[in-house]
Amino acid sequence: MKKKRKIVLAYSGGLDTSVILKWLQENYNAEVIAYTADIGQKINKKKIINNAKKLNIKKIIIEDLKDIFVKDYIFPMIRGHAIYEGVYLLGTSIARPLIAKRQIAIAKKFGAYAVSHGSTGKGNDQVRFELGYHYFGPGIKVIAPWRIWKLNSRTDLIKYAIKNRVPIPKDKKGAPPFSVDDNLYHTSTEGKMLENPKNQAPQFIYQRTVSPEKAPNKGSYVTIGFKNGNPITVDGGELLPANLLEKLNIVAGKNGIGRVDLVENRFIGIKSRGIYETPGGTLLMVAHRAIESITLDKATMHKKDKIMPIYAELIYNGYWYSKARFRLQKIVDLKRNKINGSVKLKLYKGNIIIISRQTKSRAYSMKKVSFEENKTFNKSNVERFINFHKKKLR
After folding, report:
1. Is 335 found in the same domain as 200?
2. Cα(334)–Cα(62) distance, rounded to whole angstroms?
């Protein structure tokens, strides 16, 4: 008997990928391997395994990638201060390259001829996944169901699920869910009533943050320590990357920090509206800029600020593994060995207030900046400096 070919599906256990799993079984004479990357999303391993087994899946792989995700993907992005279109901290964008890399590794390990994902035909994730697939496995076939099947809407998807006895999860109001993506860095919520930008987001969709109004009336304090540009301690205690971010998520979320309601320009040319929560990541962005302000020279900081929009857009568009992103990362990390010290923050009802910055770096000179008279800064050169720049006005 001829052996069945194999397809590795990026499987979450939710509605979309469960329907895709069933659809792949119906339309391809292949064994489907269900692959789940645990990158800190709300995950019920037992449910994932049970849902896959109900659909006659024999090989189910759940891989813990949390520390790798934070250390090798989120931290480099934090060092680059990557923010897309002024507000988006790229929580979904940064997760896809890692999943794609591991999915291809699994496909090669088990001799699969194809990989598949659950990204919609209008979204960015299909690009991010498939650029990653191509980088690590250019000869492996990609199956993108949302671009080829006859299910044209979420309503069609639910009808298909009912017909084929695929479990349909419910949201907190008992209705089919919003489109939600989450990982250790962020949660995004899209679809349904959010598609109309005039509609206010209902409070029940927020999963990681309380509203500022319901945050404590007393501020919380947190101190983040940095070494070589990466956060390594919280309140003096050294933590593994995933544990560090998880701790910051909790304290920031309790204080109403990290909410963003945005309309973004997708790579494929569509505007979309979403609600994003990035509590711990927001703290890291603020703290990292604060520690850089007293450890890096002006030219280095301004060079980083200049390339940041390009760097962020490369990540957003799925070019994490591109030569262009690698080149910019070298600029980002050129003097990261100088970024050492700690930043103390006060968190209060959605606000982040910098309380103090501490470092052994000599980049910041109290003697030079002091209003007290001193001989460390030659003010006689300032007039010549101004006259030189006057010429540039003409």
Report:
1. yes
2. 36
Contact assessment for residue 121 and residue 144, using Cβ atoms and an 8 Å cutoff: yes
Could you say which of 16, 93, 102, 182 is catalytic? 16
Tell me whether residue 376 is in a domain: no
To the query of whether residue 261 is one of the catalytic residues in this protein, the response is no
One domain, residues 132 and 225: no
In 164-302, beta strands by DSSP E = 179-182, 187-190, 220-227, 230-234, 237-238, 259-265, 271-277
Tell me what the pLDDT averaged over the chain comes to. Answer: 92
Q: What tokens appear for 9 in the block?
A: 């599906």
The one catalytic residue in 179, 325, 336, 342 is 179
Buried b (16+ CB within 10 A) or exposed e, 218-247: eeeebbbbbeebbbbebeeeebebbbbbbb
Q: Residue 116 forms beta bridges with which residues?
A: 9, 143
Q: List Cβ neighbours of 150 (8 Å cut-off, separation of 6 or more).
A: 156
Write down the pTM of the prediction. 0.92
In this predicted model, what pLDDT tens digit does every residue of 168-225 receive, in sequence order? 766 544 455 688 899 999 999 998 899 999 999 999 999 999 999 999 999 999 999 9
| 362 against 378, higher pLDDT | 362
Is 179 designated active site? yes
Question: What is the structure's pLDDT at 42?
Answer: 87
* From 125, 181, 259, 342, active-site residue: 125
C-alpha distance across the termini of the chain, in Å: 83
Q: How confident is the model at residue 351 (pLDDT cuts 50, 70, 90)?
A: very high
Does residue 96 have an active-site annotation?
yes
CATH value at residue 227: 3.90.1260.10
- Per the listing, tokens 């909410």 go with 259
- Hey, how many other C-beta atoms are within 10 angstroms of the C-beta on 192? 17
Task: Give the pLDDT score at 14.
Answer: 80
The number of domains in the chain is 2
User: One of 18, 79, 93, 96 is an active-site residue; which one?
Assistant: 96
